[in-house]
Design goal:
Layout: H1 8-43, E1 46-50, H2 53-59, E2 66-69, E3 86-90, H3 94-105, E4 109-112, H4 119-133, E5 136-140, H5 154-162, E6 166-173, E7 176-178, E8 186-188, E9 193-198, H6 211-227
Parallel strand pairs: 1-9, 2-5, 2-6, 3-4, 3-5
Antiparallel strand pairs: 6-9, 7-8
Length: about 240
């Protein structure tokens, strides 16, 4: 009697399916847990918002903006989105999968891509959603791998394609833990103060396809971010989110 043979490729595919399903469910479960922890953590923080009008003068009239910030200051921002409808650029990585899960549970859309993988497609998709649905965009301009606090050109390209202004944002954390990652990512400690400072919005004035012009706009964004500083807390109006 001749033994039945199973092709090795079929065996490999059959073995891969349960592993893929397990990984997918693990990512979903982890994202759900992180989302809950994130919301609880952020509720313990005290918030001060400076010049939020730089965002709302545009969005109140149905004009989206591109929110630009440093990667290490991302943690508190999404909790402060309030009624903003946002699409966030998130890298196509394992960490990006977890972040996308949390963001989507917070009501954001995500466009997956980075400077090293799928970036142009993600930027074009985000620009289209900004134009069609009037979504704001959120970009960590030195991500996903740095160098730290050096802006890249993705936000410039996105703002130009969407016809939207760039709004630089800094988040200053009174007490935080800095991780040993490339960006020294900051986790604000519970019951500490977070101050969000928004700079005035500005439009891309040059052709982003011109390398020299794009570099000038990149430097302008970087300088606007670095110029933002928290004012004396005694002079700022506190808002509990």
């Amino acid at each position: 009697m001749r033994a039945e043979r199973t092709p090795s490729g079929s065996r490999a595919r059959s073995a891969a399916r349960p592993a893929a399903h397990t990984a997918a469910w693990s990512s979903v479960l982890t994202g759900a847990i992180l989302h809950r922890v994130y919301r609880v953590w952020c509720r313990t923080l005290r918030y001060t918002e400076i010049n939020r009008a730089a965002i709302e003068t545009h969005t109140r009239n149905g004009r989206p903006v591109v929110l630009c910030l440093w990667h290490d200051e991302l943690f508190p921002l999404i909790y402060l989105k309030r009624d903003l409808n946002i699409i966030a650029l998130v890298s196509q990585s394992a960490d990006g999968d977890l972040l996308a899960g949390v963001l989507e549970r917070m009501g954001l859309e995500t466009a997956r891509g980075s400077s090293s993988r799928g970036g142009v497609r993600a930027l074009l998709g985000a620009a289209r959603r900004m134009r069609e649905a009037k979504l704001c965009a959120c970009v960590t301009v030195d991500g996903p791998r740095g160098p730290r606090h050096r802006a890249k050109e993705g936000a410039i390209f996105l703002a130009s394609r969407a016809g939207a202004p760039l709004v630089p944002i800094r988040l200053f954390m009174e007490r935080s833990h800095a991780f040993g990652s490339w960006d020294r990512f900051q986790l604000p400690l519970p019951f500490s103060r977070v101050t969000m400072v928004c700079g005035d919005g500005f439009h891309v004035e040059a052709d982003p396809h011109d390398p020299d012009a794009a570099e000038a706009e990149r430097r302008r964004l970087e300088e606007r971010l670095e110029a933002l500083r928290p004012p004396d807390a005694a002079c700022a109006g506190e808002m509990s989110a």
